[in-house]
Amino acid sequence: MKISLKRMVSLFLVVLLISINIAGVYAAQSQSNSYVTLMFGSRGSEVSRLQQALNNKGFSAGAVDGIFGQRTERAVINFQKANKITIDGIAGKQTQSLLYGANTSRGTSVSRNSSSVDMYWLSRIIEAEAGAEPYTGKVAVGNVILNRVNSKNFPNTVKGVIFEYYNGIPQFSPVAEGTIYNTPSQASINAATDAVNGVKPVGSSTYFFNPDKAEGKWIVNNKTYVKRIGNHVFYK
């Protein structure tokens, strides 16, 4: 009787271990393969997770409110464009796999330490805002961005300054237009380097605009004119 009982206990333990292992495998597979297709109008915690991931990677989805609206859709489209995948504004398996993965690429080899993150974004805002401007004008845009970083009135990182919103409106039009994700020219990268190294063609300016494209009434009425470089006027 004792021998039989030992065998039964042993058999039970073996079956139990096998069952646990099988369950673990299925759970792991389920976790790695599970996703919910998200699109305009979707709501819930999965949308919040999507919005947070997009914001963390610089594709501004706005407030993390769990509502897949136009801004979240635009962020998904910009992410898809940057990663050269199907552009449909729908966060399906391919989009989510890239977004939540550790190796999402933006088409650049810049390493992600703090100084290179600054260069990564600074060179892109320079390209987007001043790609057709003279070189000094490119450096001047970088000068303004860094002045904002160093001001108590603005976010304290380059990325934070670029993606700042006021009353729901982005402070820099390339963020709204998606051109912030364009690949910068070598001139824009060089201009960003000069700005980071302290070249200041517009001194302490914290504002600029193109008077041929924007009125800039608030800036003109409330800030001090510094100079014009190319198509941009700069104020402090």
Detailed description of the structure:
This protein has 236 residues and is mostly helical. The chain has two domains: 45-100, Muramoyl-pentapeptide Carboxypeptidase, domain 1 (Orthogonal Bundle), CATH 1.10.101; 114-235, Cell wall hydrolase SleB, domain 1 (Arc Repressor Mutant, subunit A). 53% of the residues lie in helices and 7% in strands. It has helices spanning 2-33, 45-56, 70-82, 93-100, 114-130, 135-149, 158-162, 173-177, 186-196, 217-222; strands at 165-166, 169-170, 207-209, 225-229, 232-235. Strands 3-5-4 form a three-stranded antiparallel β-sheet, covered by helices on one side. A two-stranded antiparallel ribbon has the order 1-2. A hairpin with a 2-residue loop joins strand 4 and strand 5 (232-235). Helix 6 packs across helix 9 (186-196). It starts with a helix and ends with a strand. The relative contact order is 0.10. The model is unreliable at 16-33 and 102-114 (pLDDT under 50).
How would you describe this structure in keywords?
mainly alpha; 10 helices; Arc Repressor Mutant, subunit A; elongated; three-stranded antiparallel β-sheet; 5 strands; 236 residues; single chain; two-stranded antiparallel ribbon; Muramoyl-pentapeptide Carboxypeptidase, domain 1
